Predict the 3D structure of the following.
Amino acid sequence: MVRKYVYGEPFETEAVVEKIKAEQGTEDTGFGRISLKNGFTFSCQMALDDIVYGLGEANRGINKRGYCYISDCSDDPNHTEDKRSLYGAHNFIVISGEKNVGLFFDYPAKIVFDIGYTRSDILAVSCEEADLYLYVIEGESPLDIVKQFRKLTGRSYIPPKFAFGFGQSRWGYKTKEDYRKVAKGYRKNNIPMDMIYMDIDYMQDFKDFTLNEENFDNFPEFVQEMRKEGIRLIPIIDAGVKVEEGYPVYEEGVEKGYFCKREDGSEFVAAVWPGYTHFPDVLNKDARKWFGGKYRFLIDQGIEGFWNDMNEPAIFYSQEGMEALMETLRGYVEKGVEAIPIWELDKVQGLSNSPDDYKRFYHCVDGKKVRHDKVHNLYGCNMTRAAGEAFEEIVPDKRLLMFSRSSYIGMHRYGGIWTGDNKSWWSHILLNLKMMPSLNMCGFLYTGADLGGFGADATRDLVLRWMALGVFTPLMRNHSALGTREQEVYQFERVEDFRGIIETRYRLVPYLYSEYMKAALNDDMYFRPMAFVYPEDSFAANVEDQVMLGDEAMIAPVYTQNAKGRYVYLPERMLFVKFTGEGGYTQEVLEKGHHYVEVALNEVPLFIREGKCIPLVKPARCVEELDTSHPEMVGFEGAEYVLYEDDGVSKDYEKAENYRKLKR
Ligand code: GLC
């Protein structure tokens, strides 16, 4: 049962697609109290054992209790435990206990979720303005609530099947030779791979929808050269459009009035990678259509996927911010260095992503001027929507790969997300795992982290362990930052260990794709918290480092340095499968309960539930070369599995022949 309450005059975020009649919001929703004194505050009491799920891409646990989270899309590459805001804003939570209730706060600006932080038994959600929709969803279980919510917000994005292959990325590849080197590194070592990602250096001076003239002459031919190797090139697109006379995207945008403007009507200027840029006003329908149409430049040259970045939008500094800082510093220079209070230097840091800047520009939405900070969390969502809507026109019958850094619920219909600039830290393997079910609750199914870590220097063991988790995440991509240790898998000793892990991914692609498609087509979750599947099991409720995958399996990655294995909790009897290098695997039935399982650095652990089985195929160099005609079934004797399979490109999902029954 869903109830929708309206408070004040909400901005239409279009997160929800189902039409429901809204009731006038009062101070009592039947669940929790609302105060309209200072803005809006929802509060309710939590029982000692209540669990709070949700918030999508957020810090800390699967159970969000005990901390304070702020939906305020932020370009912050230091995901330490104390951080409250990351790149996305996913304002959906489920309180699970005696009663199960889902709450969605459809509000596009900064909103605070104090989940037992100020007072351990109080959940309080507050925002500055009482203009929002509140959806209250009741259901028989957390999963039931999630499914109702997902139906409200529309079908999750479905990528092409090749997107379930492995992808290599690194910030710093510049020339065709750099890309050829990566392709060769994989192919020479017989390691499967489907994608190489193109970071900002492929562009001319970081200008969107351009190619570096010196390095990428005859680009369509190069795209085909890679395709012959079974590899797709996936370029990045950034939010900011470089301010430069003679650059058509800039000139057109100015001429048509499609960039975000200051109060006085001039274009707002923000420095990002290209230097000074303007932000396309993707909240304005016409500007969105215009910007989306620009992706055609690369699609026409054979490109089949993109990643959208810097779309919080990230601002290194604004003209206004820089001028104010210079003014302050000039004052100190005159007085002499000793006069500078050290904390004043923090202002240099404070230049980037400053809340003041987000108040300095406006969107034009249906003819109305809207200040950016009031709708801040919708920017990345609408940039990706621009692309998604354009793809429908440019290639209506074909799926393209698309994922974004920043997002709001609703964007899950147009693309996936990657979880941004993590670090080569062991703790970030665990954070990666914990985010997955929370993201699925909010509709984001095509997701993954930068495997091996983006910032900081990776080590061989960390990359192996992280990739062993990445085997199961729909987006499996190794990406790293300029200046860090190179972490393409062939950079490390004993490359065969990495080959074994990536081959395991490819052996599982038919199964993982099938589970993904079932989740997408049924508004279901690909990854579920254990308590969703074993609600009566009090141990399962507390498990934060294992998650359920589809209806058949459980994953429990090793995420500790120098560990030879890990403890695992089995809520029922399961088959413990360990994929070893060279296509082999071991299997052992383990009884319900706690176990210590040994997992070597080159092994991938998977647990198959009692009475279930999954298909395995032979690896190939890329997804489209996998032979899925006679899968080997692994699991319990007599078990059946329904495999979903389609051409992986077109959008005809509902055909009965897409389903095939397989038996162990
Ligand atoms: C941002 C992105 C990262 C990318 C870099 C350069 O930090 O999050 O993935 O490599 O920009 O484009």
